[in-house]
Design brief:
It is a multi-pass membrane protein. By secondary structure, this protein is of the alpha+beta class. The chain has 3 domains: 86 residues, no CATH class; 115 residues, no CATH class; 172 residues, no CATH class. 43% of the residues lie in helices and 12% in strands. The chain contains 14 helices and 12 strands. A 5-stranded antiparallel beta sheet has the order 1-2-4-5-3, sandwiched between helices. Strands 6-7-9-10-8 form a 5-stranded antiparallel beta sheet, sandwiched between helices. A two-stranded antiparallel sheet has the order 11-12. Strand 11 and strand 12 form a beta hairpin. The protein is elongated.
Length: 466
């Protein structure tokens, strides 16, 4: 579009993409100053317009890039002269809401959104220190996704930061729309079903982990932030544990670990026991099992696979349907299919109870990605139990342990503090010690300041009657 300045005859051309530009900024901040003030050069115009982000350039590549980001181009000639680019992007983002995946009864109720600036603001207002560093880069030949790497200078190990920065810089992919894609691309072992970076939607959790000397990755367009390096035990620790008494927090962590082990092993143990080790079953329980399986035509492995796959189908159906319909399908479908399969003689009522409890146990995992891994692990254990019984379960566990021992997160041991054994880090792993005992940061993060506070000064207050 061609315009002229009424205060002084200065002809100029303006270009922009209307769907990408905020019309309020365009009319109130740009056009008002253009028509009401006297100016004759782009430098003068840069001083007049009350917009922070403005660039004067004649680089064609920069001009194309900025126009597609919602900038307004103003030129004093049609061809060959420098132009000024004024940021007036239309930001369409949702407001900050409560966490949906990591919801907690106690603690803050804010969650990340899809805006990079908003997410960094949620972190910075909880860490108002100058040592917090934010390094940004662009990933994706087509999507041009902005990614920010956050760490605390003087606290985080520079090797961890350089590892993350190098892997992000070396990415060559055309479209990156979410942090989950980056997780798969920069993980140490992409063949592993275990997530090697912790993703969270809670700003308070990110701040807590940054204070331990770790690295955070914020992706524009994603409501989840990636954290590394991480360990296996962190995936079974809900951040709500830190808002509870240490005795309660430790008890709930142990319950989760037991539930996960129960979810993985109980169905394979059922298959292995009925096929090879029925003499280990107490006589009273054996009579109950024989009675429940008297009319079942399928072997235990097919019976177990039928119920396990049915549970997975119900989960997928509930997740893909609208919320209210999905909840109805999950509850009604589980009751109807379970009752009908028992009455039809396809499964025993004991195995139905076992599979239902195993499904409940997998839901106790605080991190969704780890919950998916737990769901997958049951099937290899079932296969080994069918062919080798309890020996097969032990053999499959050895394969799993070997894989976990070799797994790393940003080059750090994934099984720490279990292996290599770190007694100091055990204070906040399977159980959580009181805060007076958590005076040191994790060893595997290689932080430059391992001591949080002087333990000798952390004295417990006495009761009033002592």
């Amino acid at each position: 579009m061609q315009y002229s300045n009424t205060a002084k005859e200065t002809r100029y051309w303006m270009f922009y993409f209307r769907p990408l530009v905020d019309t309020q900024i365009l009319h109130q901040s740009i056009l008002t100053e253009l028509t009401s003030q006297s100016w004759s050069s782009l430098e003068q115009l840069k001083e007049l317009i009350p917009v922070e982000d403005m660039i004067i350039t004649n680089d064609t590549g920069v001009i194309k890039e900025k126009l597609f980001e919602g900038y307004v181009l103003i030129s004093l000639s049609e061809y060959g002269e420098p132009v000024i680019l004024i940021r007036s992007s239309l930001e369409q983002t949702r407001t900050v809401t409560q966490p949906e995946v990591e919801f907690s009864v106690i603690g803050p109720k804010e969650a990340f959104v899809e805006s990079l600036d908003t997410n960094i603001n949620l972190i910075r207002k909880r860490l108002p220190i100058e040592e917090l560093r934010v390094r940004e880069l662009t990933i994706g030949d087509l999507s041009k996704t902005q990614v920010a790497v956050l760490y605390i200078d003087g606290l985080a190990d520079k090797e961890n930061f350089h590892t993350v920065w190098q892997r992000l810089s070396d990415l060559e992919f055309d479209q990156v729309s979410d942090s989950s894609l980056i997780t798969q691309m920069i993980s140490d072992n992409y063949r592993s079903p275990f997530p090697q970076l912790l993703d969270t939607e809670r700003p308070d959790r990110v701040v807590s982990i940054l204070s331990e000397g770790k690295i955070a990755i914020v992706v524009n367009g994603s409501p989840h932030v990636l954290i590394g390096p991480t360990t296996l035990v962190e995936f079974f620790s809900a951040f709500e544990d830190y808002f509870l008494n240490w005795i309660l927090a430790s008890f709930f962590r142990l319950v989760r670990l037991f539930a996960v082990a129960f979810s993985i092993l109980i169905t394979p143990i059922y298959v292995a026991t009925l096929n090879y080790h029925y003499e280990l079953i107490p006589r009273d329980l054996l009579n109950t099992l024989v009675t429940s399986r008297r009319e079942i035509p399928l072997p235990p492995i097919l019976e177990a696979l039928f119920l396990e796959l049915t549970i997975e189908l119900l989960r997928e159906a509930g997740a893909r349907l609208p919320t209210k319909v999905g909840q109805t399908i999950g509850i009604v479908g589980g009751i109807v299919i379970g009752t009908a399969s028992v009455e039809a003689g396809l499964t025993s009522n004991i195995l139905l109870i076992i599979v239902a409890l195993a499904a409940l146990g997998s839901f106790t995992t605080p991190v969704y990605n780890m919950g998916n891994t737990i769901r997958l692990l049951r099937f290899p254990f079932l296969a080994f139990a069918e062919f080798l019984g309890l020996l097969g379960i032990v053999l499959c566990f050895c394969f799993l342990a070997t894989h976990l021992l070799r797994l790393t997160s940003l080059g750090r041991p994934f099984l720490e503090p279990l292996y290599p054994p770190r007694l100091r880090d055990m204070k906040d792993s399977l159980i959580r010690f009181p805060y007076a005992s958590l005076n040191k940061r994790p060893i595997f993060a290689r932080t430059k300041q391992p001591v949080r506070f002087d333990e000798s000064k952390a004295k417990q207050k006495k009761d009033i009657d002592e």
